[in-house]
Specification:
Two copies of one chain form a homodimer.
Chain A: H1 13-23, E1 27-29, E2 36-38, H2 40-59, E3 63-64, E4 70-72, H3 73-76, H4 80-86, E5 91-96, E6 99-107, H5 112-122, E7 131-140, E8 154-164, H6 167-188, E9 193-197, E10 207-216, E11 222-231, H7 234-238, E12 243-244, E13 250-251, E14 254-261, H8 263-272, E15 289-293, H9 298-317, E16 322-324, H10 331-340, E17 345-349, H11 351-355, E18 358-363, E19 374-377, H12 381-406, E20 408-411, H13 416-426, E21 429-434, H14 438-443, E22 450-455, E23 474-479
Parallel strand pairs in A: 3-7, 15-16, 15-17, 20-21
Antiparallel strand pairs in A: 1-2, 4-6, 5-6, 7-8, 8-14, 9-10, 9-22, 10-11, 11-14, 12-13, 17-18, 18-19, 21-23, 22-23
Helix pairs in contact in A: 2-6
Amino acid sequence: MSSGKLPSKSHDFFGWYNEVIYQAQLVDESPTRGCVVLRPYGYALWENIVHIMDKRFKEKGIENAYFPLLIPESFLKKEAKHVEGFSPELAVVTHAGGKQLEEPYVIRPTSETIIYHMMARWITSWRDLPMQLNQWANVVRWEMRTRPFLRTSEFLWQEGHTAHATREEALEKAKEMLGVYIKFITEELCIPIFAGEKTPKERFAGGDATFTMEGMMPDGKALQMGTSHLLAHSFPAAYGVQFQDKDGQMKSPWCTSWGTTTRMIGAAVMVHGDDAGLVLPPAIAQYQVVIVPIFKTDEEKVTVLAAANAQKQALENADIRVHIDARDERPGAKFFHWELRGVPIRLELGPRDVAQQSLMMAPRIVAEGADRKITVAFDALVGTVHGALKTFAQLLFTRAKTYRDAQLSNATKGTLESFGKNIEAYNGFVKAGWCFDRACEEALVAYKGSIRCILDEMVPDEAQCFGCQKPATHVVLAAKSY
Amino acid sequence: MSSGKLPSKSHDFFGWYNEVIYQAQLVDESPTRGCVVLRPYGYALWENIVHIMDKRFKEKGIENAYFPLLIPESFLKKEAKHVEGFSPELAVVTHAGGKQLEEPYVIRPTSETIIYHMMARWITSWRDLPMQLNQWANVVRWEMRTRPFLRTSEFLWQEGHTAHATREEALEKAKEMLGVYIKFITEELCIPIFAGEKTPKERFAGGDATFTMEGMMPDGKALQMGTSHLLAHSFPAAYGVQFQDKDGQMKSPWCTSWGTTTRMIGAAVMVHGDDAGLVLPPAIAQYQVVIVPIFKTDEEKVTVLAAANAQKQALENADIRVHIDARDERPGAKFFHWELRGVPIRLELGPRDVAQQSLMMAPRIVAEGADRKITVAFDALVGTVHGALKTFAQLLFTRAKTYRDAQLSNATKGTLESFGKNIEAYNGFVKAGWCFDRACEEALVAYKGSIRCILDEMVPDEAQCFGCQKPATHVVLAAKSY
């Protein structure tokens, strides 16, 4: 493992990304193709994500369950579009227990097929609906090109699966869960996003409507941060899921699925980090505060560590995650260490501070013009740190939104020729008019772009389709994407 | 799904076990050989286990990480005993991404091999030690005979892996983590166990010492509840894990691994359940308390539900997990429903109770001679329920220990002939003398028994080996096992 200077984020974005995640020990390379190891400092981010989101799912009536990793190969074939979408990426178990299997199993790329098989056993009447399940699990998709967090052969995720009596109710649930994601991504990950519906071309394999959230990465490309689907009515039917409705009729329920993955960690690294290393959103950081004790003599060490421990305790009592770096290293080396690891707030505490019952607070980043360090009295520490963490999160969001908005252009009256070259050359997002025709949508491919989502916005007067110049019926977000 | 009367636990133990876990909706059959689906009510038990144990691991300095599911086949072959132990059970991925793989991957049966591969990258100096990792994950072992929770082709578990500079320190850690397990199993799962070391014959494939906990199931057989291993020194060395010690010498670290699984849920079901259904230990029950509102008119319903909600809130504020069963069913049907599901405490609340500001408390089981129901005033409810949950857990443990001790015989001066037939015919545990000779140990096989563990007990004067009748050097626990 190298631990030298990082490449510049603005000059060598991917060089920077690949180095910062290894040097900060979020991940390491693994011997398994396209997979990384999540080291403790990286896995802790996922644990915090799980903790926050799981609680919110449960508040929405979602229950967790666990389904088998291995799915009979024939299950995927029951829904034609679904198997078409996933079969190039499947990992297949052909041998087990020392023998060739009669029917191979695929490692789940997603679990709709086996979950519908089970729902067919569990759902018989309208009284069994809604059924609202979620699974925290690993999935495998054997992707050609991989990048840590953003796209790996195995990844950790949650997949929600619900069944409802009516299309309206299912659609409402798909949107409700998208709302849970939007709140988490904007408030906790501090990343601004555009949310909207995918075009029919870009939908989930087997979906009737796919909702997405698109964040802008620092290279101006769009990253899909999570999706929520209303599934085609034929999908649960293909697995025999039926219920007797209040009117006595047998019907197929309407289903949703929705998922987010460890990819969210990659997005937070990309959007917030800088040339000194990670800059972590406080909600997911393993440590929100690091205390660096400063001392020369053994006597000073005793005094300073006692004070550091007392302040740590006070902060922890207020549910703030704190670490004291008591290693045998120079303070400067510790500052560098925790800057690289993106801890939001550093507290420095020496013998003179203890004498004055105060310490120095240095946030990892501050707003332009603000003091980089301030003195805080012990008895004001908890309140000050609470406020500083909140300010820190707001600063991350504002900074990311300012950047995003500067790379966003409005071309609802423009043509593909007028903005396509810009997408190809400089990236960035374009709001464009669209006529809903697939041929127009596909014209974007020539510029390496795509429609990321249909925005829920009024179509301006005289807006025209970027492709055919006919009157636009929709406003869409066009961009290059990961 | 059937939901009829359960078979009698005492007359048809396995019939009872298989029915109770399905009827109480802990699990359902799956289309994947040897795997079950963990339904929400069953998965919630695992979530509570994870929550409690994870916190205790972290208090011992353990950090969570995540390693790939798929391990290159060649990795397992580097340690001869390890591959010998696991190869009959492996599930093998031979195709992925539409192509045959050059080297197959095995789905992890356990992760030592890939973790040591990574530790070889991370450990270079004594300063990097101890390294103390844990992983919560799914593993696959393609077992011949499976039974829900006890032995399934895929199961959920945690696997701890630590590396230390010295054998003493590693051995101490292996025992410390065993201690964490013992505390959890006896205090939270309320199951008495015998803990001790495995014989060389029964050790982990690649281990130097294996510590185990053996619980007695209601059929008198032993169930291994979890293990902790000191690994053979050659094991990390086979993966190139080395460090420079303080003396400047390159050395191989000493390693431990330790694991517990969803099997613990099966043990709790078996040990505590009765002919009416599950009896759940309060620490892991999804709901510790269920409130059954009783009313006839709509007006009564409003009054009763308001009071039920107020009491629920009070209990939840005291960290008690409560559910109000407001379904449109008769109270008797609800009592049956929650008895089957083993909720520790039922509260019944009708309009007359509301008028008297009190309710009826009915624990799922009570000590012999105790009242099955008592009246509790609203303002004494939180304290009374707290106490009742504690009493409930103690009762479960005492009841299980009384049963276990009645099936435990002492034969440290006996011969295999004198107790072997009893083990074969009636099951139960036997404390016996042993000379440490493998030939004597293997004589137990004729009676379908085995040495479950070597007990850390004084060898009584004149104790003799059950096999050769020579003076015993150890006291062992002999039994049939799962």
